[in-house]
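Page header: ASSEMBLY MODEL / two components / 406 residues total.
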Amino acid sequence: MPKPGQAGGRPRDSRVDHAIAEAVRALLAEHGYAALTVDAVAARAGIGKAAIYRRFATKQEMIFAVILHGMSEKPPADTGTLRGDITALAAWFGDRIAHADAGVMAGLVADIHADPALQTRFTDTYLTLERSILAALIDRAMARGELPTRPDPALVHGLLLGPLFTWQIMLGESAARTPQLAHTVAHMVTDALSMGVIPPATP
Amino acid sequence: MPKPGQAGGRPRDSRVDHAIAEAVRALLAEHGYAALTVDAVAARAGIGKAAIYRRFATKQEMIFAVILHGMSEKPPADTGTLRGDITALAAWFGDRIAHADAGVMAGLVADIHADPALQTRFTDTYLTLERSILAALIDRAMARGELPTRPDPALVHGLLLGPLFTWQIMLGESAARTPQLAHTVAHMVTDALSMGVIPPATP
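Prediction written out in full:
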């Protein structure tokens, strides 16, 4: 079993994780997305570049981990009900997005689209993790008998994350209201799931 | 009253609009977002650069108009019911996004965040138009007595557009399924509006 403070099954030096995260946040706030380099992060954190590259293959992956996932944060656990699980997951998405800078998110997403290798790595890490969280949430709700049909996890993902992601990055709305939006999204999606409105996965 | 084919009240030569749109689409498909220039569009369209700059202040605004709004496209008209209006608007959003390249959208959004003047222009044109469409839709539903309370148009905007925008640009899902997602989004948002789930605007 992983000890507290470790992410997944991989042993980590959490002081190094913390120093990297602090350096990335400070440098992004001071100079923005385009100016950030792994060299600058290593210097600011007082560590070697090798320690960064053991954790992250690229600058973009490092920024993504820091701004959207935290370094050792876990997704919400089973709350016992579909409504509780959806509310916790929407709040988790919303909290990460509310703490991210919209310009940094936009720069990162553009880089991911411009680089096929980065796109693959993004899919294999970030998207695969989020999809497994959604699938597990749906499995639990099916086992509890809370869903009339099994909805497509990809659609549920888009319906939950979409408004929160778009709110700041596309619509220029305030992060201060992201928690309110997350609450509304959770309410809507739970109702839609309970009523079987979200179609099943296509074969 | 504007003649058919004219956008808003401004007289236009629709052949030039069409030539610009065709050139932008072809060049984006061939060389991608970063490589597109106004010079290349003018050459490809067989027109002068001045004709482009009379319509669009920047390259980014031109791309946005072509890929997300069409050149002379109008938003959906009053369908007579809230459900009809929401379904038509979600389909309109979805159709534009399904026909756009995710990498082009991502590059444009990053440029908008990196340039305060472009951000202002984007807000004053694209966002203001979309917000006015949402406000009119809500006004019509209030007048018909279909809404228990007046929801915040910004929240409705995020809930409708968010999943569609995020589907391709962030989640890497197929544009072929965007119409299905638009249908599901419309169903969910209409139900939420009818039940007063979406909070009012904050004062």
